[in-house]
């Protein structure tokens, strides 16, 4: 009887051909949790700390709800202790030769290889993500990251001479970001000689496990300190004295809040915000492949967020039909099942998705859900939302996991406008079989990463970052290394906070000026007015401010205001696209032409500098160095961007350096000529249009140069607005359509700029009130300027026929 | 009823023997014959057509034909269609399985076009390769052919079968192929009428896996009869 039973079962299996369960044993994950008696503390200074009287958050299996372990939540004093441990470790760690750090990272890669099962089962068990993605994607990548950065550490002394590690790095991760996001940042930080304090979400054992593995191996205790804690603790870690840089991964609003909190606290802030991605499907695309791209992007547990999908109208019906057919075959289930496409992500993610779907429905959107999804609560069906009116809030808001929000477009140009019309600029893929079209779109998209005919590829060699509200920080590649480096000799970043600074009133009102006598001094004086849109214009406020030089001569310059800044930014936006598209050689030749023009004016410029108190020799030298700066940036232009080769990918990845757009620069009072030129030149060289506020004490030199700019450069490319520096800074910092701001003024101004930049999250570069040696090569013309003057984009070009 | 192979595939000269042997064994498995100058297909159209007719006369109920690669490589799509139409006619009642020899067709676009033409001309099955080329059934090629089958089904409502051949030697390989069909075309294609694996050497491995499943031990090759 038994025999027939087996026989008929085999037949049944053969007829039904259903997937069977492919459970992955998580015994080792539980065993590891048992070694801690299911209570995880903080891993600080190379040991486990379990301080008393701390809240414990229970870490639950998102599918069964079973309590796996309790994680102790950090408090302020724990954070302080961790930063202290990292500071102590930094002293020894940063002094080790690069080769020693490289050896350590290689060893850690080996340890991860040896204990990978523990890693992937623990991660999948706790987060609910499909084990396939963790096992075949995340863990090998974590290991590659260690290996890549080991090589970078080895080469550091030679390749990155002139740069030193920043110090203690505070890393803050918000819930959808996983241990891999931690590794993307920890690896370069450790490789470059920094030490890290990571604050991870309340119940996340995997980062703790990694910290333990890293700590047991480390020659210096405390290089990687990890603690679980509530999101509220983020600002506490960020503002802890001694933390030199804060890397934050989380939601846009959290990033903005942190930016405001951290204004004036000293630490540099690197933001990686939001999880949404974009997919652009043209009519020449291989639709089936693109549908797999959509699955990779939203329904495979690879990415933490949802997807915005733009489909060309002519292939809309066909694409939607294929997506829906594909959705029907997706399988949800326990993450630890090897044959599952999508796991469950816990209640928060589910609520977020549910909320979005409800909202979308109420705003007129249609919702399609499909897939083989168990009906019990922890699972959320793969969801396709379409038919939303373009102005509906849901069409603008960030799309959560596992939702795909589809909308149509008619032409490639329209697609670009729609895509670039989003406040976010993370990653996007373009699907087209026409190379020309694909490249046109790939170059045109304002995002950090573009994949052509693929989605979600990643590699340690390739810099990944973003722009606009996605935050401007990079991980991976060379760009990722600079996040943790500073030019050698940079003083430690201390708080320059002015508690009494009132953000509402800073620079709000321009102190009134009254005529203080007739204009004196040698003529010809530079033309009167603000240099906007290629010509000198009277200021909107129709008033002037007196400038007195050291020999007592009196001049009047235009008093610029908010309307003038608006006009200047608009003029700059007109000029920016054309200038950005110019070939580097064309840009270089204009910079050289400006250098020549400066040379022709050298006596006039030098004498003006002398009248401002410079020694005749120093004045001459300042003019000469200024000329050389322009020539230097013209020459350096040629080597922008390059090709990267990624293991396992056929085809190149282009690392592009793209213009930021409109860059605002507030020049320092000192070095009225040299600082102005040293800031103007790299900004122009990298393809930006600029709005400058020249030296407050001596703006005449800048205006003098503008006479040449007027004849040489396209109108609107360079705009110079004179006036009250605080007021103009306020106008620039609060302007939402300026892509970056460099500020070299007072400490208070720096603090205000940092605070105000939270509005559009424009990258800002401030001097925190410290003077800069503009005449020195490193500070006045170093690669630091180049890093700040452009943004990186990675363009993936897989090939095949 | 036990589990059997879907068909027995032989060279044309052995069709008679195979039909006889199967009849003697009381087995109703169909006999398939490779025809049209297998595996290269480099003979006159006339002889290729005659080969089909003879195999059908001998009792083959399924005919595997090889397409003329030259027609694909030079883009003579209409000529290719006409040729397969003639094969179709020559087959009469017998099933027509068209081998695309994808390893020799060049880019995947050619594979897709050849697949569609073979289906439009009335093939009951499209098959990756003869098993004799240097490159045989690969997953990228298979995905292209499966998507062509799906597109054809969506357009016409006709279900055409798929048969990968060459290099599929282990039970594990065959599972990968089963899931590929399941994912791309769905469960309805997982029947002998619509999906076959052309694999002369797969059987031993399946037997070894069953041996392990039943006894808990891995079999030596001499534990099982040769196939």
TrEMBL record, chain A:
Q: What molecular function terms (GO) are annotated for this protein?
A: oxidoreductase activity, acting on the aldehyde or oxo group of donors, NAD or NADP as acceptor
Aldehyde dehydrogenase domain spans which residues?
48-486, 554-767
Family matches, as InterPro entries: Ald_DH/histidinol_DH, Ald_DH_C, Ald_DH_N, Aldehyde_DH, Aldehyde_DH_dom
Give the SUPFAM superfamilies listed for this entry. ALDH-like (SSF53720)
Family annotation (Gene3D superfamilies) = Aldehyde Dehydrogenase, Chain A, domain 1, Aldehyde Dehydrogenase, Chain A, domain 2
Q: Member of which family? A: Belongs to the aldehyde dehydrogenase family.
- Matches recorded under PANTHER family: ALDEHYDE DEHYDROGENASE-RELATED
Describe the subunit structure. Interacts with SPG21.
Q: What is this protein called?
A: Aldehyde dehydrogenase family 16 member A1
Instruction: Please give the organism.
Output: Nannospalax galili (Northern Israeli blind subterranean mole rat)
Identify the gene encoding this protein: Aldh16a1
From TrEMBL, chain B:
A UniProt-annotated Pfam family: DeoC
Q: Which InterPro entries match?
A: Aldolase_TIM (IPR013785), DeoC (IPR011343), DeoC/FbaB/LacD_aldolase (IPR002915)
Q: Which GO molecular function annotations are given, in alphabetical order?
A: deoxyribose-phosphate aldolase activity
Q: What is this protein called?
A: Deoxyribose-phosphate aldolase
Family, as annotated: Belongs to the DeoC/FbaB aldolase family. DeoC type 2 subfamily.
Q: Can the keyword RNA-binding be found in this entry's annotation?
A: no
Q: What is its EC number?
A: 4.1.2.4
**Pathway as given in its UniProt record:** Carbohydrate degradation; 2-deoxy-D-ribose 1-phosphate degradation; D-glyceraldehyde 3-phosphate and acetaldehyde from 2-deoxy-alpha-D-ribose 1-phosphate: step 2/2
Q: Which residues form the active site?
A: 127, 163
Q: Does the keyword Zinc apply?
A: no
* UniProt-annotated location(s): Cytoplasmic granule; Nucleus
Q: What does this protein do?
A: Catalyzes a reversible aldol reaction between acetaldehyde and D-glyceraldehyde 3-phosphate to generate 2-deoxy-D-ribose 5-phosphate. Participates in stress granule (SG) assembly. May allow ATP production from extracellular deoxyinosine in conditions of energy deprivation.
GO CC terms on record? cytoplasm; nucleoplasm
Q: Out of the domains of life, which is the source?
A: Eukaryota
The root-end lineage is: Eukaryota, Metazoa, Chordata, Craniata, Vertebrata
**Coiled-coil region:** none
Predominant subcellular localization, coarse grouping: cytoplasm
Task: Recite the UniProt keywords alphabetically.
Answer: Cytoplasm, Lyase, Nucleus, Schiff base
Supply the CDD domains for this chain.
DeoC (cd00959)
Record field: catalytic activity:
2-deoxy-D-ribose 5-phosphate = D-glyceraldehyde 3-phosphate + acetaldehyde
Q: What are the GO BP annotations of this UniProt entry?
A: carbohydrate catabolic process; deoxyribonucleoside catabolic process; deoxyribonucleotide catabolic process; deoxyribose phosphate catabolic process
SMART domains linked to this entry: DeoC
Q: How does it assemble?
A: Interacts with YBX1.
């Amino acid at each position: 009887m038994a025999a027939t039973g087996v026989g008929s079962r085999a037949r049944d299996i053969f007829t039904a051909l259903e997937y069977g369960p492919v459970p992955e044993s998580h015994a080792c994950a539980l065993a590891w949790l048992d070694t801690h008696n299911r209570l995880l503390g903080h891993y600080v200074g190379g040991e486990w700390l379990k301080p008393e009287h701390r809240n414990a958050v229970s870490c639950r299996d998102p599918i069964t709800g079973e309590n796996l372990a309790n994680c102790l939540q950090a408090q302020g004093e724990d954070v302080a202790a961790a930063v202290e441990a990292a500071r102590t470790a930094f002293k020894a760690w940063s002094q080790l030769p690069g080769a020693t750090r490289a050896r350590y990272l290689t060893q850690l890669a080996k340890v991860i290889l040896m204990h990978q099962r523990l890693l992937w089962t623990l991660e999948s068990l706790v987060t609910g993500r499909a084990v396939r993605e963790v096992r075949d994607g995340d863990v090998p990548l974590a290991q590659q990251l260690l290996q890549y950065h080991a090589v970078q550490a080895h080469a550091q002394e030679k390749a990155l001479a002139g740069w030193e590690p920043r110090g203690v790095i505070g890393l803050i991760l918000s819930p959808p970001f996983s241990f891999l996001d931690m590794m993307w940042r920890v690896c370069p930080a450790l490789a470059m000689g920094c030490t890290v304090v990571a604050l991870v979400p309340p119940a996340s054992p995997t980062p703790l496990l990694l910290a333990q593995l890293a700590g047991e191996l480390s020659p210096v205790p405390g290089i990687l300190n990890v603690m679980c804690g509530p999101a509220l603790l983020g600002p506490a870690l960020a503002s802890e004295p001694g933390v030199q840089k804060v890397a934050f991964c989380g939601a846009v609003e959290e990033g903005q809040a942190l930016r405001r909190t951290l204004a004036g606290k000293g630490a540099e802030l690197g933001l990686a915000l939001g999880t949404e991605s974009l997919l652009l499907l043209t009519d020449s695309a291989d639709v089936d492949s693109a549908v797999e791209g959509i699955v990779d992007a939203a329904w495979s547990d690879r990415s933490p967020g949802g997807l915005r999908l733009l489909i060309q109208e002519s292939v809309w019906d066909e694409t939607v039909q294929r997506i829906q057919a594909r959705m029907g075959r997706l399988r949800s289930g326990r993450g630890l099942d090897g044959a599952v496409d999508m796991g469950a992500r816990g209640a928060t993610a589910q609520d977020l998705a549910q909320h979005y779907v409800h909202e979308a429905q109420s705003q007129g959107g249609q919702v399609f859900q499909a897939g083989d999804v168990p009906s019990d609560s922890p699972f959320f069906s793969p969801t396709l939302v379409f038919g939303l009116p373009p102005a509906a809030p849901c069409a603008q808001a960030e799309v959560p996991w596992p939702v795909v929000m589809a909308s149509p477009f008619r032409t490639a140009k329209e697609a670009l406008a729609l895509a670039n019309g989003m406040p976010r600029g993370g990653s996007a893929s373009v699907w087209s079989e026409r190379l020309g079209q694909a490249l046109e779109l790939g170059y045109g998209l304002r995002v950090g990463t573009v994949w052509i005919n693929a989605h979600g590829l990643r590699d340690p060699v390739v810099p990944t970052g973003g722009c606009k509200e996605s935050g401007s920080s990079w991980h991976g590649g060379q760009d990722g290394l600079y996040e943790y480096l500073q030019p050698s000799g940079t003083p430690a970043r201390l708080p320059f906070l002015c508690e009494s600074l009132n953000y509402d009133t800073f620079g709000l009102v321009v102190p009134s000026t009254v005529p203080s006598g007739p204009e004196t001094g040698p003529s010809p004086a530079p033309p009167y007015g603000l240099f906007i849109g290629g010509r000198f214009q009277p200021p909107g406020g129709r008033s002037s401010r007196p400038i007195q030089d050291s020999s007592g001569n009196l001049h009047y310059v235009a008093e610029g205001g908010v309307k003038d800044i608006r006009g200047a930014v608009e003029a700059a936006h007109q000029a920016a696209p054309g200038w950005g598209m110019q070939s580097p050689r064309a840009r270089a030749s204009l910079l050289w032409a400006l250098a020549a023009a400066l040379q022709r004016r050298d006596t006039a410029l030098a004498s003006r500098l002398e009248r401002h108190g410079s020694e005749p020799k120093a004045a001459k030298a300042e003019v000469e160095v200024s000329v050389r700066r322009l020539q230097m940036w013209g020459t350096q232009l040629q080597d922008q961007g390059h090709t990267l080769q990624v293991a396992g990918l056929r085809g190149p990845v282009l690392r592009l350096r793209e213009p930021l757009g409109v860059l605002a620069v507030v020049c320092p009072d000192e070095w009225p000529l040299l600082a102005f030129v040293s800031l103007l030149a790299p900004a122009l060289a990298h393809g930006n249009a600029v709005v400058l506020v020249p030296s407050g004490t001596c703006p005449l030199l800048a205006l003098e140069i503008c006479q040449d700019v007027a004849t040489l450069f396209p109108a609107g490319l360079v705009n110079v607005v004179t006036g009250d520096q605080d007021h103009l800074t306020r106008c620039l910092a609060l302007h939402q359509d300026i892509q970056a701001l460099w500020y070299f003024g007072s400490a208070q101004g720096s603090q205000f700029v940092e605070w105000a930049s939270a509005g559009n999250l424009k990258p800002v570069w401030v001097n925190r009130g410290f003077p800069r040696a503009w005449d020195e090569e490193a500070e006045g013309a170093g690669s630091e300027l180049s890093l700040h003057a452009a943004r990186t984009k990675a363009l993936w070009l897989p090939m095949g026929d | 009823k036990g589990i059997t192979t879907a068909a027995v595939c032989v060279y044309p000269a052995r069709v008679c023997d195979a039909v006889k042997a199967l009849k003697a064994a009381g087995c109703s498995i169909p006999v398939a014959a490779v025809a049209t100058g297998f595996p290269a297909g480099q003979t006159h159209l006339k002889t290729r057509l005659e080969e089909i007719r003879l195999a059908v006369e001998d009792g083959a109920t399924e005919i595997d034909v090889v397409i003329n690669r030259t027609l694909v490589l030079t883009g003579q799509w209409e000529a290719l269609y006409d040729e397969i139409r003639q094969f179709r006619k020559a087959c009469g009642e017998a099933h027509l399985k068209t081998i695309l020899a994808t390893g020799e067709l060049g880019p995947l676009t050619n594979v897709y076009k050849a697949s569609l033409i073979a289906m439009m001309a009335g093939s009951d099955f499209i098959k990756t390769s003869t098993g004799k080329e240097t490159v045989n059934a690969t997953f990228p090629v298979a995905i292209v052919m499966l998507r062509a089958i799906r597109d054809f089904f969506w357009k016409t409502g006709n279900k055409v079968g798929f048969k990968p051949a060459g290099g599929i030697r282990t039970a594990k390989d065959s599972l990968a192929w089963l899931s590929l069909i399941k994912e791309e075309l769905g469960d309805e294609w997982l029947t002998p009428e619509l999906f076959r694996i052309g694999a002369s050497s797969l059987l031993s491995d399946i037997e070894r896996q069953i041996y392990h499943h039943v006894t808990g031990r891995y079999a030596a090759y001499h534990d099982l009869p040769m196939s």
